[in-house]
Amino acid sequence: MEYNSLSEKAYCLIKDKILTFEKGQYISMREMSSQLGISYTPVREAFQKLKGEGLLDLEPNVGYFVPKLDIKDLMQIYEARECIERFVFEKAFDFLTREDIDALKDSVRKQALHLSDRDIKEYLKEDERYHMVFFKAANNPYLTELVRSIRAKYLVCSKRIRHGSDVALEEHIKIIDLIEKGEKLEAAELMQRHVTQAKLRMMEGYIAYNG
What is the arithmetic mean of pLDDT over 53-64? Predict the structure, then answer.
């Protein structure tokens, strides 16, 4: 992957690494700089940006930690998604191109592969790519920035929770089918149910995983 700057490279690589860390884990900027082979300043800038997005917590005089998001945080994140995603889907529907639909189909194909490989981190990246197709088509950068921030925070919690992912994939496929048939209302209703059911599945999975 090509990057426009060292700061962007540091940001992308560190963000990806955060998804493999444990909640509450301490992250050293200097150690991260050494691991990535990137000088300290771009790494520090990346940490500050990730903190601003809620993907890192800063404890004064101690350092940076992976956020300790809990089930309450997850539910509030999904409530925000419930408020946004149907609106965006309906706004985007009439502007979806053949290229967009092909991107959705490619995404569900990759989602299936990642689930088969039990690679939940890569599956979640593809899940995000699928949903962002609609935000791109809706062409509202403020909503796009908002949902990216929301989804990034929930990835910190959900990276190991596979609960119900097969069902979510089936819903993704059905949404594409309805789009191709021009069934806007039915597709929008399914998108709403999809996000709501994802919230419930996430809650069940979180409880099962964390006891």
Answer: 91
Task: Please calculate the CA angle 33-119-5 and round it to the nearest 5 degrees.
Answer: 30
Higher pLDDT, 45 or 198: 45
Q: Give tens-digit pLDDT for 86-126.
A: 999 999 999 999 999 999 999 999 999 999 998 888 888 89
The tokens for 183 are 């069934």
Asked if 198 contacts 75 with a C-beta cutoff of 8 angstroms, the reply is no
Matching residue, tokens 């059905």: 174
Nearest by Cα to 38 from 13, 11, 10: 10
Do 195 and 161 meet the contact criterion of CB atoms below 8 Å apart? no
Inter-residue contact 98 to 132 (CB < 8 Å):
no
- Angle at CA 35, nearest 5°, toward 68 and 4? 90
Helix (H, G, I), strand (E, B) or coil at 64: strand
| Measured torsion, CA atoms of residues 11, 6, 37, 57, in degrees rounded to the nearest 10 | -30
Task: Select from 2.30.42.10, 1.10.860.10, 3.40.50.720, 1.10.10.10 the CATH code of 6-65.
Answer: 1.10.10.10
The amino acid sitting at 130 is Y
